[in-house]
Give the backbone structure.
Amino acid sequence: MEDPARLAALETLRAVRQRDAYANLVLPQMLRDRRITGRDAALATKLTYGSARAQGLLDAVIEACSDRPLSEVDGSALDALRLGTYQLLRTRIPSHAAVASTVDLVRAELGSGIAGFVNAVLRRVAEQDEAAWVDELAPDPDTDPVGNLAFTHAHPRWIAQAFAEALGSRGEPLKLALEADDARPAVHLVARPGEVSADELAAIVGGDVAPYSPYGVHLETGAGDPGDLEPVRERLANVQDEGSQLCALALTRASLEGTDDRWLDLCAGPGGKAALLAALVGLEGGELIAVEKAPHRAELVRKLTSGLPVTVEVTDGRETGFVEGAFDRVLVDAPCTGLGALRRRPEARWRRQPADVGQLTTLQRELLTEALRLVRPGGVVAYVVCSPHLSETVGVVADVARRTGAEQLDTRTLFPEVPDLGDGPHVQLWPHLHGTDAMFCAVLRRPV
């Protein structure tokens, strides 16, 4: 019997493992190419993203049920074991169906021998539910509370520790943050200012107006490929997390004396924030310069900002050659670990390593320093990263502010009506508190 949904999920997991592909890029294209729609598309999406997101927990259970270490398991068989184990532990699919469907896929591709091994492992997995396996395999919550929560909610321990340090808690707040980060997120849209309102967009797509962004709309989880929506195809709206919208808007809300018609996005790819900023500055007759180092990402910016007052420059944001003080407002949406958007990039948590942080913070400091050179005296810079890691957030901002003399503004005032923003002066958003990605934003003013 054909099983297009599970086959698509399995082949996407294989692409992630073999080619370091991104599931959220591979799967939608595969579904379109194979014309998989409706329930099959929804099932494929759930199984793919769920299996990729929970990989660490799944691997621990698989190894506990196997007669060999994972390093000795055939890669394609391991992909199938992850898919089957996810169905057994984290879906309502009957156990016999989860096992049989997975074994059938393996038998058709790898033969009866490996299919027998997969069958034996999955039957052992099915002997307990997820809670029982967590009780058996997770670190002791009394001696290692962070490790226990990391295992329970399928996060590498170092990432859970970074969350704990940013939250200032190893208890309930950390549990809630990891729990929210382990859930499949809703899709957020941003209406293009001057073209369509959030109310109009919500009515067109059947979504809900976002609680905080005046341009945001939330779609139901599992609502399908947002790229198929007419407003997105016609560039009346883009896919953008509400937290990203709020951080871009914070730059525009900071008070400014004097000129205010020349804005800069120093790290513009793939173009979501640039499109929002360009639409807003364009309403006032201004322009946006969008800088992007990678040519293919610069092309994405051009496409996304088509029809807006934007000039795209393909260059390194640290070495633009722009005249000092040439801009009124500058956005530094710096390259980062992406730890704040793990729920949207299911495999990313298992790829990132602690060593990545140090390399990125050097780049982040250089970009923020250059932004403060390019903004005019009295102008403002928004430093934004999609990460709560303290080294990437308050560490970078404090260091650059000390060396440049830049004034840190109370960024909380630039997020009106958003609750639970902490002690400031920066803002750290969280999925469990705000329903957004874990975006960080600090707004600084260059001294006059």
Notes: The two ends are 72 Å apart (CA to CA).
